User: Which sequence fits this backbone?
C-alpha cells in the first residue's frame, strides 16, 4: 500500500496534486479502490466547468488526512487506494466519451476491486453503471442530488447530465426498486417529471422530506430499501445547498448542509458499496474552493465507508489483520 | 398566457434575460401578476449595488422552471405572468424616485391584478405600499428581513432603505397590528430601536425566535396574526444568512438558511397576498450568483403561493378550470 | 429605426438587457444590421463558459452610447440595428448546432443586410461563413485572434473552436489569398501548425509583427490584402492580452492592448464588411466584466465601421440623407 | 468612555477603519477591554493570509452597532472599549513573534482589565495564554474550533498554529480539566491525535456531538466543566462551516452555522471571561467579506458577554451605575 | 512632521489603515498637505461602490513607501502630510453632500496649505473647486479622465458625477482656457457632447491623441496651456484602461496604461498645484486590489509632485533646509 | 525523452497537473532541465500565498504546448525536461528552508544539467544561487523584478524575499558587475536603497528606462553586461504590471506588459543560462489565473531560450542531431 505523502514531511500544499496526495498510478492493478478522474462537462445543460472538477478536487484534497475523528485507524491503513489519473474523454462527441469511459471503468474493475470516480458532469455515471453492473448485475443505487436525473433526452442528443439514471434503468443496469434518491427539490421541466422514476419504484426523498424525517430517519429508509444489495453510490455535489457548494452546474437553493451530507454518507458503511462517484463540481464557480473541498471530504468519507461496508466480505475485501487491530 | 420560453427548445442560458424567461411586455394589461424591476440603490446605507439587482435576478432565473416538485400543474399554467421590465428611477433624487415608483405601480395595479417587484433597495417598498393600499386599504404585511426597517430618517434625507415601514405605518398604508416581521436580528442603532414597531402592534419574530418556534411554528404565528386580510409580502434577501445571500447591502450573520426561507414562504398561500417584493440583492457582492438565484427561486415560490392564496377568490382571481384540474 | 433606450430617461443599468439597449426584435426584417447571439461553447477545447457570452456582453453593453468621440452623428442615427435575440443551439450535438446556426444566419441575411454575431465559441464562425458566402461568394476575412483556428479535427469530432477557418477554406467559403490573421502568438500543437494556412495564401501577422509594424502598419497591410472585396470580420476576444480580456477560453499572454484592438478595428470602415462576429467571451472567467465590456465596445465600433465601409454603396446600404448630414 | 463614531453622523462605511469604529488608542490605559490586532500568519500550515485579518475585521465591523436586539443598553454604554491598534510582529521569526506578542499582551493587562485579540493565526493564542495566566493563574479555556490545536511541532519549528494549547497545557498556563473544545471534526494527522488532550482531561465536543446535544446542551456542558473559573475564550473562525467562513486557513466542511456559533457564544456571559480572541480569518479567501463580518459580529457578542460575565464582580469590573440603569 | 509608520518596525500590512500609514489627525492644522477621504457615490450613474474608495485606497497604500526610485529624499522628509480622515457626507441628499464637502474643504484650506482628496465619485470635485478657487481665484485644471464630465444634469438632479466641471466653469471656479483634459475616449450621450467644453476653450487630449503625441508630447501641451497658473489636478481613475483599473464606476476600454498615467503625473511638478484628487475607485469591482493600489501610487506621486511644484514658492511652501539638501 | 502528454489524445485540462504536462519524475537523473517547485512564502513581507505558486503554475501550464510560433521544432524535441515535483520546505523555519532548498538544488545539479525553479517567494533564489555557483563559480545574473531585492534583513530574521541578491553578492555567489536588473520601480524603504547594488556594480534598468531604451535596447544592454558568462536568470513575476500579474506578493504599478516581458526573455538565448527561476506568483490574488498562465508561458519561453543559449556548447548540452534538423 502506498498511502498519502506524509504531512509531517511535506506540507499539505506541496507536491504534484493527486487525490489526497495518494500515489499516481496510471494503470493500477490489485487495488482496493482506484480514484479516477472524469474531466468532462459536455453533458451540462446550464453552467459548464466540471471538466476542471478532477483537478480542483485533487488540489483541495491535499488538506485532508486519511484519519477521521474517533475512527481508529486511518483509511489508508485499511485500504489500498491510488489515484489512477484521468480518463481521456472527448469533449466533442458525447457518445464517444461515454463509450470511452465505460471501457476505461470496465478495465479498472477487471484489475481492481472498486473505483471512486471524480466528475465531470453526471452524464458519465451511465458509464459507471454499465461498468459496475457488468460485474455485479443490476445494482441498487444511492443517489444524492437536487435533481432526479431520470429526464428524457433533449436538444437532439441521446445523453446529457440529466439522463444517466433513465438510461441506467432502461438498460437494466439499475434495479429501480432498490434505488433511493435523496435531496431532490426545486423545479422540474414538467409537472409529471417525477412520475417516471416513481412509476418504476424509485424511492424519492426530497429535501423537504429530509427536514421531516431527519438525517437519521433518511438513513433508516436507505437501509430499508437497499439492504445488502450491491449498491452504486452517486453523489451530485448539488445535493448540498449553493451556500455550501456554489461551484456546480445547476445549483438549487434549499439544499442540504455539509454536515447533513457528511452525516448521511455514514449510512454507506451499512450497505455494500461497489462503486462510487462525486460529480458536478464546477471550479469556475467555486471562487473560494469550498465546493471542491467538500467534494474531497466526501471522497475521504466514501473511502472509509467503503471499507466499513466491505470489511467483513472476504470475497471483495480480504481482511488485513495487522492494520485493523 | 405567454409562459416561459420552453427549455426543451431553448437552453436555459439562452435568449434575452427576462424573469424566468417570461415574455417582456413593457406596458402590461390584464395580467394576474406583473414582475417589475426597480433598479435603485440610492437608499442604501452601507453596500450599494442593488441597482443591478433586477438584471442579475433575471439572469439567474433562467435556470428555474415554473413547475415545483410535487405541486401538480406549473405556475404558468395557472397564472398569467409577464415581465414588465424596469421602472425608470432617478438615482439622483430619492423623493422623485419614490414618486415615480408609486405612480408606476399604481398604473400597474389599475390594469393588472398584482405585481412582484424585484429590487432595488428596500426604500421602494414604500411606493409599493402606497400603491397596494390605494386598492386594498391598509394592508397586512409579512416582512422577512434581518432589520425592522422602521427606523427614523438620517443624514438629512426623508427616506432610506431602513424607513419604508415607518413611513408605511405613519401614512396609514399598513395595519401594524396585522404586520409580522420574521428574521430580525443583529445590532440596532439604539437600544430602543424596536420599541417603535412594537409600540404600534407589530409582531416581531427574531432569528432566535425562529430557532425556538421552528419554521412551522412561525408559520402558525403568521397565519394567526394576518389571517385573510389583504397582505403585502416583502422579502429582504438579508433575511437569509450571508452564507446563503452574500450579495446584499447590509448582511447580518445568524440568519435563516435558504431551506428555512423557502419553507416559510409556503405560508403565503394560506394568506391573501395582494403584492410582493424581493429586495436588497446587490450583485457586485454576489460573486457566484447564489444570492440572485435564491431571489429568483423565492420569486417562483411567491408566484405559486400567490395563486394558492387567491385561487378561490373569484373577484381577484377567476378560476381557469381547464388548467388547474 | 428603433435606436437605443435613451440614457437621459432610463439609467444605463436599467431595463431588460439587450445589446446596447436596442429593441429586441426576435424575427427581424429589413434591418441594416441584426445583432444575434450564439450562446454555445461545446466546441471549446479548454475553458468553457462562452455559452453565457451573449448575455454578459448584452449586460455590459448598457454602458455604451451609440455616439463615439469626434465622430459626428451616432451610429443609430445612421444604421437601423436591432437585437435579434439568440439562436437556439443544441449544446449536445455539434453538427446539429452548426447546422442550426447556418440556417438561422441564412434566414437573417435573406431579410436583412448584415449581422453581428455575439459568441459563443469560435466554432460557429463556420456557420457565419457559410451564410455570408451564400450571399457574397467566397469572402475575404479579417481575423483577429491569438490562434490561427485552421487546425485539424481532434477527439473524434469534425468541428471545434480551432477549426472554423480550415473548414471555411476547405469548403470554398473563404478566399485564403484575401485573408489576414492578426495577433497570432503563443504555442501550437505542432511545429508545422501554421504551414497549412500559409500554404493556402493566408497572411499571418503575429503579435510580434504588430510591435514591428505598429497598428497603423498592420492596417495598411490589411487594406492591401483585402481591398474592397466583401469581407467577413471575425474577432476572437483573445486577440487582446489576458490582462484586457481574462474572460476567454484559451487566453494567451503577449497579446494586444484594448487600445491597439480598438484602433485596429478602425480599418474595417476602409473595407467592405458583409458580416461580423465577436466570439470567445467566457463570463465565468470575467470576474469584473472587463472582457464583456471590451467586447461590447468592439461591437459598437464594428457597427460604426460597418456604416463607414458601406455608406457609399447604394446596393447594400442606401443613404439616409436626413441623418448623416 | 469613547464609544463608537455615531452612525447617525457618519455613515458606517466612512472614517479610518477601527474595530466597530471605536477610538484608536495606541497605548491604552484603564480600559475595560482593549481590542488588539495580531496580524500574523507565519504559523499557518495551509492557506496563509491571516496577517490581513485584523484590518479586514476592522473594515467589516463598521456595519455593526454596539446594541444587540432585545438587550437593553448598548455594550459601549456598559464597557469602556478602545481599539489598541496592532502588535508589531515579525513575520520572519516565530519565536520572536510569540515573545513580542506575550510582552505586548502582558503590558495591556498591566494597565487594562482584559483584551480581545483579533488574529492572525492561532499560534499567538499561546502568547495570550501566557499573558492571562500571569494575572489569573492557570485558566479554564473555552475553545471553538474545527481542530484541537494540541498537536506536536512539525517541520523543524517549535510553534505553529496547531500547537497553542499543547504548549499552553505543557507550560501550565491552562487547566486542561477545565477546558472544553467545541466543533472539532474532520481529519487528523494520526489516529491517536485526540488522545493527547483527552488524556489530560480536556472535554472535546465534536461537531457531531453538537448535533446530538443541541447548542443548548453544549452550553450546559460548558457551564458544567468551566463553572466560574477564570476562562480564556478562543474562537477559531473555522468552527463555522466553510459556507459561513470561507476565508480561513484550514477550512473543514461539516461545521457550525453562524447562528449556532453566535448562540453558543451566549454562554460566555455565564462564565467569568478574562481574555478572548477571534483568530484565523484569512481575507484573501474571503471574497465577499462574510468571514470578517462574522468575526466582527462574534467580537461584538464577546464584548457584551464579557460584560455579562463580569458585571457582578467589583474587583474586575466596578459597576457604572449611571449607564446600566 | 509625523511621517509614516516605519516599515522597518511595523510590517506594511499592520496597524490601523491610514493613507500610506501616515498619522491620523482628525482636525489638522498647519500641514503642507492633508489627505482627506470623501466616501460618496450617490452621484454615480452606473456602477456605485466609490463610497468604499477611501478605505480601500488606504488599505492598499500600506505597501507604498514615501521614497521613489532615484528621487533623493523621501516625500515625507520634504512635506508634512497627515491623513485627515473622512468627511461625513450624506448619501441621501446630493446638495447637502456637496455643501458639506465644500465647507469641510474650505476649513482644511483655512488651516493648511493643500489637500489631496480621495473619492468617492467625481461629483465632489465641484466642492473641491469651490474651496480652492476661494483661496486662489479661478484655477487652471489638469483633468485625467475617460470622460469630459462637462455634461448637463439628468434624472431630475442638479449634480452628478458627470457634471463637476460644467458647474465649475459655469460658477467661474475654473478658467476653461487653462484647462486640459487627458484620456477622453469612448462614447458620449450625444454627438455634440464635447462641443460644450471646447466652446469654452478647454483643451481636450483624447486617448487616441496620447498615442499620436506620446506622453512626453502630452506633458508639453499641459505645460503650454497651464503654465504656472494655480492648478487643480483631478484624476479619475478611469483614465487608466479597465485592465489597469477595473474597479471603477464607468470603465472605458482603450485607456492609458498605469505606466503612462504615472509618467504623465510627472508633469504636475512643473506646474503649480494647489489641490488634488483621485476619484472613482469602486472597491466592489476591484477584486484583486490593483485599482486601489494604482490610486495609492498616484497619490504618492502627486504628493511628491506637489512638493516639486511648490518647492521654490516661499509663500506657499517655505523651504525646510535641513531635509532637502 | 518523455515530453508532454499529447494534447491530441488527452484534453489539456485533463490528467494530474504537472508543469506543461511533463512526466513527473521525483528523483530525476541525466535530464537537460528539471522543473522543480519551491512552495514557500514565509519570506514574504506583504501578501503571502506564493506557497501555492507551483501548483497553480502547473495547473495553468496545461494550456501551453511546447511549440512556439515560427520556431521550428518544439522545445521537448530539443530538450529532455521533466517535472521533479516540489522540494519539501519548512514553512516554520526560514534558515532550515533555505538550507533544505540549497541541498535539494545541489543534488539536482549533480545529476542533471540545469533547473527551472517555480516559486515560491524570492527568498529561495539564494538557495539557487548557492547551488549554481557551486557548479559554475560566481554567476552573472539577469534579474527581472519591480524590486532590487538587495535590501538588508528586517524584523529579526536573516533572510526574506527582499534579500536574496544582497546575500548572493555578499557570499560571492554572484558577480555584481555582470548583474542586470530590469523593471525596477516604485518606492523604496529609504532614499539610498539602490546605492548598495549600484555601489557594487549592478546595472539597474528601471521601468522608466525600459520606455526610454525600448525592449530591444534593454536586450542590447543585457548582452553587453553579461556576455557569455554563465548566467542565472531570475524572474519575479512582479516585473509585469499588476494588470498582467495581479497575483503576486508586492505588486507595483507601472510595470512591463506581458508582451514586453516575453520579448525580453528572448535575450536569454543569446546568453549562457545555467539556472532559472520564476517566483512570487501568489494564487490567492490571481482570481482568473492570468498570473499563473503568464508564469507558465515564461517558463516555456525560458526552456526554449535555455536550449538556444546552450545548443552549441557540447560540454553542457551535447547536440541531439536527429531532432533539431
Assistant:
Amino acid at each position: 500500500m502506498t498511502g498519502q505523502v506524509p504531512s509531517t514531511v511535506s506540507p499539505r500544499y506541496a507536491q504534484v496534486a493527486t487525490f489526497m496526495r495518494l500515489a499516481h498510478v496510471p494503470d493500477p492493478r490489485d487495488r482496493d479502490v482506484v480514484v479516477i478522474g472524469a474531466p468532462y462537462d459536455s453533458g451540462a445543460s446550464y453552467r459548464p466547468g466540471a471538466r476542471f472538477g478532477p483537478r480542483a478536487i485533487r488540489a483541495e484534497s491535499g488538506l485532508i488526512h486519511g484519519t477521521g475523528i474517533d475512527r481508529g485507524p486511518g483509511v489508508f491503513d485499511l485500504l489500498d487506494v491510488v489515484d489512477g489519473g484521468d480518463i481521456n474523454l472527448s469533449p466533442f462527441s458525447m457518445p464517444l466519451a461515454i463509450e470511452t469511459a465505460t471501457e476505461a471503468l470496465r478495465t479498472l474493475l477487471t484489475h481492481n476491486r472498486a473505483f471512486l470516480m471524480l466528475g465531470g458532469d453526471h452524464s458519465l455515471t451511465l458509464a459507471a453503471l454499465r461498468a459496475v453492473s457488468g460485474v455485479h448485475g443490476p445494482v441498487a443505487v444511492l443517489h444524492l442530488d437536487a435533481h432526479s436525473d431520470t429526464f428524457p433526452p433533449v436538444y437532439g442528443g441521446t445523453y446529457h447530465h440529466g439522463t444517466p439514471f433513465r438510461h441506467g434503468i432502461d438498460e437494466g443496469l439499475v434495479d429501480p426498486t432498490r434505488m433511493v434518491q435523496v435531496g431532490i427539490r426545486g423545479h422540474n421541466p414538467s409537472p409529471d417529471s417525477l412520475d417516471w422514476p416513481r412509476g418504476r419504484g424509485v424511492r424519492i426523498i426530497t429535501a423537504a422530506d429530509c427536514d421531516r424525517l431527519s438525517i437519521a430517519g433518511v438513513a433508516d429508509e436507505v437501509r430499508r430499501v437497499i439492504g445488502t444489495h450491491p449498491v452504486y453510490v452517486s453523489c451530485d455535489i448539488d445535493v448540498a445547498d449553493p451556500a455550501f457548494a456554489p461551484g456546480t452546474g445547476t445549483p438549487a437553493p434549499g439544499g442540504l448542509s455539509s454536515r447533513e451530507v457528511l452525516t448521511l454518507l455514514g449510512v454507506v458503511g451499512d450497505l455494500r458499496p461497489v462503486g462510487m462517484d462525486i460529480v458536478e463540481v464546477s471550479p469556475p464557480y467555486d471562487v473560494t474552493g469550498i465546493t471542491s473541498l467538500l467534494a474531497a471530504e466526501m471522497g475521504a468519507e466514501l473511502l472509509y465507508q467503503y471499507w466499513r461496508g466491505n470489511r467483513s466480505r472476504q470475497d471483495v475485501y480480504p481482511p488485513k489483520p495487522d492494520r485493523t487491530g
